[in-house]
Amino acid sequence: MNDFLRPNTDGSVFGAVHLGYIAVQSQRLTDWDRFGASAIGMHVDRLDADTMRFRLDDRSCRFLIERGPAEDVTALGWQIDDHETFDRIIARVADRGVPIDEGTADEAALRGVERLWRFPGPKGIGTEIFTTAVTTPEPLRMLSSGWVTGEAGMGHVAIVSREPESMRGYYHTVFDSRLSDYIDENVSGLMMKIRFLRVNERHHSIAIANLRGVKIDPIRTRVQHINIQSATLDDMLASFQRVTDLGFRMAWSVGQHTNDRELSYYCVTPSGFELEVGWNPIVITPEREATWEPSTYQGISIWGHTTVGQTVLDKFAQFRRALETVRTPEITVPELSGGPSR
Ligand SMILES: [Fe+2]
Fold first, then answer.
1. Which domain holds residue 126?
2. How far is the CA of 180 from the centre of ligand 1 (A)?
3. How far is CA 56 from CA 147, 279, 296, in A?
4. CA of 140 to the centre of ligand 1 (A)
5. Distance 207 CA to ligand 1 centre (A)
6. Domain VOC, which positions (predicted)?
7. Distances from the Cα of 206 to the Cα of 78, 171, 172, 233, angstroms
8. Looking at the 3D structure of the chain, how many domains does it have?
9. Which among 42, 131, 245, 307 has the fewest CB atoms less than 10 Å away?
């Protein structure tokens, strides 16, 4: 860990939190195998008929895909660097009366982690925290040459929310997330606002999108997309070609984002949420961290990200007349959402 980011001097856990793994429930394990290994280029391990994992690096699990009905992301696994910080997070949750459970030995083994605990998260996505990831000496067998993980974690998660300030408050309360910036995007005359939150040197580990003034969420899945970062531009472009060649759905072709400057494309996973494969986002180094000020960008992309089929923007546009009263309230964790709305 970088000394500048070392937590605990002020009680903050910022910098000691890293997105470690994604847990998915799906009935489409055969499709996931082909998608993840043959198209995206990750290492796949089939554990049994109902369980598979993808690796990106020397860790035994970055994606856990278990057979089940949700067809969605069910939990996000966050690595916490040390036991003291881990205890601090547990105390924050427990002190606010939120139920927190220790994972079983089997659950920890499946996720390839030690000291697994879980508690409720926004939109019903479980928040799982762990201290140590199990690495494996088994060599990587994958089409990609590598993925960028390490201090920056495995990537980021983007979520559409009808309660964006509550969600932002949650990650602030639990992980001391910091606001990197905003993007405003015009969607058929309505303003979509995206808040980008970081918990380490990755520009954002969580992005939260909503339509201003209209509480609608047209996305079936709890997570709109997961992002992973290719080691090289060639890797990213080759995976784009394989996704296309193998007939998986593309959502946005290659383009570059305004805020973190990441080059990326978006395709649709067998479970329906999207996977963004990116390359070379800016890193918020200690020097940048020291002077970082959030700003607001107009539009998601500098260039590209041409839509292929229906995208989140189309879905928002279609739903602009939807009334919040026809939908059930979004799941929030109010005890943990009281952070500042900065
Ligand atoms: Fe993204």
1. 3-133
2. 13
3. 6, 14, 32
4. 25
5. 7
6. 18-132, 153-280
7. 12, 9, 11, 23
8. 2
9. 245
Q: For residue 183, report the distance from its CA to the centre of ligand 1, in Å.
A: 12
User: How many angstroms is it from 166 CA to the middle of ligand 1?
Assistant: 20
- Of 104, 133, 162, the residue at which a domain comes to its end is 133
**What's the CA-to-centroid distance between 262 and ligand 1, angstroms?**
9
Measured in Å, residue 112 CA sits from the centre of ligand 1 at 25
Query: From residue 196, how far is each of 93, 184, 193, 207, 330 by CA, in Å?
Result: 23, 11, 10, 5, 20
Amino acid identity of 164? P
Of 106, 133, 160, the one marking the end of a domain is 133
pLDDT tens sequence for the chain (342 residues): 444 444 445 789 999 999 999 999 999 999 999 999 999 999 999 999 999 999 999 999 999 999 999 999 999 999 999 999 999 999 999 999 999 999 999 999 999 999 999 999 999 999 999 999 999 999 999 999 999 999 999 999 999 999 999 999 999 999 999 999 999 998 878 899 999 999 999 999 999 999 888 888 888 999 999 999 999 999 999 999 999 999 999 999 999 999 999 999 999 999 999 999 999 999 999 999 999 999 999 999 999 999 887 788 888 777 655 555 456 889 999 999 985 443
Kindly give the distance from the C-alpha atom of residue 203 to the centroid of ligand 1, in angstroms, as a whole number: 10
CA of 102 to the centre of ligand 1 (A): 30
Structural domain includes residue 293: yes
